[in-house]
Every structure is written in structure tokens, then in C-alpha cells.
Amino acid sequence: xxxxxxxxxRDVVVIAHTEARELCAGHIxxxxxxxxxxATGGTAAGVLGDLGVRGPDIRARIARLPRSGAxxxxxxxxxxxxxxxxxxxxxxxxxxxxxGALDAPARAxxxxxxxxxxxxxxxxxxxIPFSPRAQKVLELSLREALALGDRHIxxxxxxxxxxxxxxxLGAATLVAAGVDLNAxxxxxxxxxxxxx
Length: 196
Hints:
Blueprint: H1 7-22, H2 30-40, H3 42-50, H4 55-63, H5 76-81, H6 86-97, H7 132-147, H8 155-165, H9 169-176, H10 181-195
Helix pairs in contact: 1-2, 2-3, 2-4, 2-8, 2-9, 3-8, 3-10, 7-8, 8-10
């Protein structure tokens, strides 16, 4: 499936990984995919921007969420089953930005964040697994693309997957920011019609 991702959709996954690391999360969740969508640009960011969603506000909301550590049941095989290969993502990023581009500098000390508690302020290194809900969002992005007759998976499909999953922290953060998930879906479909 990863080969179907546009470069912008791949960037969403890479940025989600980076955000999870920066926010000291034990997994890549739907909230990190949302941050990736906002940071990458493209159709999804345009739709969210038109609905009044701003990256700094959403990031601040997510940073205030309690950290729960690793997901209860991480399943790397499930990610591979839907075609997501973090090693391939790492190779793609390193080809563009150089070896070790996703690694924290060896001498850098982790910054303490306001939400850090009792030693949990250390940034994660290496592989961070996707939460089951984030895996579901990526699977649903493929289903959305197929349902719309698209051969690629773009940022709009990832956003549609996030909205369709609807129960993760990404969707909950949008709702808490006053965004109606049905309005997001309608706006994505309207944006597609305008560009078609």
C-alpha cells in the first residue's frame, strides 16, 4: 500500500513519527497523523484550514493530553499487512535528508516538557509503533481511495480515514476544537469536485 501513497501522504507518516517522538509518546496515534496532515499541506491541510483548524492550536491541545505510554497491543505485522513499512519510510527520508535524519542528535539532551512526569520526558529513539487506531486510519485511507476510484492515497484520503475511524484522539481533538466530522468529510469531497 505504501507505494500508493503520494509524496505528501508519505510525509504525513514521517511527520507523525517525528511528532510522536517530540511529544514523548509511546506510539504513533491518530493525533500524530492529524499533526502530520496539518504540517504537510495539500488538500487535507487546505480543508482543515478552511474549517478554522490551525496547526499550533491543535498541537497545543494534543500536547496537553495525558501520555499513556505504549499501546496496549502494538501489531507491527498489521502495519506490514496494509503496506506500511517504517524501514522504507526511513530510507526515503534519509535519501532526501541524509543518513540519520530521523534520529535525535547523539549529544542533545531531551527537553523537559510541561506534560512530562516522573522521568517520562525522554524522547523515544528508533522505531515507534503505530497504535491500533492509527493502523485502522491508514487502512481506511486505502478503502477511501478505492471507494473514490483513486489509484493513489493522498492526504485527503488519510483525512477521510481519520474521520471515518472517528474514535481516536485525532478525531476527538478536532471535535474538541469545534469541528464537525461530517463537515470535514463533506468539505474534502467538495474540494475533490472543485479540482476534478
